[in-house]
Design a protein that fits this description.
434 Repressor (Amino-terminal Domain), 5 strands, 2 domains, alpha+beta, 155 residues
Length: 155
């Protein structure tokens, strides 16, 4: 899937940028808050083979609301310090602290570790269907293109 900001073909991160939920690449994800990742690999393989579908269905993994509070509550319920939790799941203490404060979104791997350790649900699958797929031309305009055009017009 293409990045909705810059147009790169490797967009697999769902992020909220300026209040709008969009699919972005890793480089553009810094401009918003990451809320999940695309999971549908079958669709990517079909695109590589050149197959076209009439309906687009995506399965996304999203973090539950207040994931940081849930993790912190479970950790405190077990009477563990951040250092103990970090050692138990083999992650850095500072990273766990930032996750609990919701300053950073955990990777799927770390979220799965926390789910397994605390026996809680942090990731949920969200299935979206957007109807017909548009066949993109190479001349498709992205948000990044619009910004560049506006910058050129201001000069």
């Amino acid at each position: 899937m293409d990045c909705e900001l810059c147009g790169r073909p490797d967009a697999n991160i769902i992020a909220v940028v300026e209040g709008i939920k969009m699919t972005v690449c890793e480089k553009c994800s810094k401009y918003g808050k990451e809320i999940g990742m695309l999971k549908d690999k079958k669709e990517e393989r079909a695109e590589k083979r050149g197959e076209k579908k009439s309906e687009k269905t995506e399965i996304e993994l999203e973090l539950v609301e207040d994931y940081g509070k849930k993790i912190k509550a479970e950790r405190e319920k077990k009477g563990m310090s951040l250092k103990q939790l970090a050692a138990a799941i083999a992650e850095k203490e500072s990273y766990i602290d930032r996750i609990e404060n919701e300053d950073v979104i955990p990777s799927e791997k770390v979220a799965r570790k926390l789910e397994k350790f605390f026996n809680i649900k942090l990731l949920e699958e969200v299935v979206t269907s957007s109807g017909e797929i548009e066949i993109k031309d190479e001349d498709t305009i992205t948000l990044g293109d619009i910004i560049e055009i506006k910058k050129k017009n201001k000069k």
